[in-house]
Specification:
Layout (H helix, E strand, L loop, with lengths): L10 H6 L7 E4 L3 E5 L9 E5 L11 H22 L3 E5 L15 E6 L17 H13 L2
Antiparallel strand pairs: 1-2, 2-3, 3-5, 4-5
Adenosine monophosphate binds next to loops.
């Protein structure tokens, strides 16, 4: 299977280069965080690495760790800022998983009881399928 490569100059690259405006809430050497223009709830924030990558499949470990560090810093601040009762940390990788912008980004989504934001639906494994899938992952990751 051929996997897609990163497209240059996504809308987030333009935000990084300050070519288009954004409500930037945090920046450090390796990451930038700004408000999502179409939030699930107010305060919905996107954290992106400055180094180019498409998503979880091609991001370097150091760039990913920098994003995670910023997510951990911001989640409690955002919760406090908007009085959220919970926070989802979410990431869409590839079109099948609803990725629309092909520059790595992690969503920080403030949540409230009964806020109507849709969560993932759950499915059931067929007989034996759970063990088969687990075995395959264990073998491939080498554990
Ligand atoms: P995803 O589906 O994970 O690729 O999410 C892309 C997100 O980027 C969506 O939630 C959009 O609302 C958001 N978005 C798109 N354009 C902009 C923009 N110019 N500024 C801020 N957020 C944006």
């Amino acid at each position: 299977m051929r996997y897609p490569v990163r497209m240059d100059d996504t809308i987030f690259d333009k935000i990084l280069k300050r070519e288009i405006p954004a409500e930037i809430v945090y920046e450090d050497e390796e990451t930038l965080a700004f408000l999502d223009i179409a939030p699930n709830n107010p305060g919905h924030t996107l954290v992106i690495p400055k180094a180019p990558s498409r998503n979880i499949f091609d991001i370097s470990e150091s760039s990913w760790l920098a994003v995670m560090k910023t997510v951990r810093l911001l989640a409690p601040v955002i919760r406090e800022a908007v009085g959220a009762e919970g926070i989802n940390i979410a990431m869409n990788n590839e079109r099948a998983a609803d990725q629309e912008v092909f520059h790595t980004h992690v969503h920080i989504i403030p949540r409230y009881h009964g806020d109507g934001v849709l969560s993932f639906t759950k499915k059931k494994y067929a007989e034996g399928e759970m063990a088969t899938v687990a075995n395959k992952i264990r073998t491939m990751v080498g554990s």
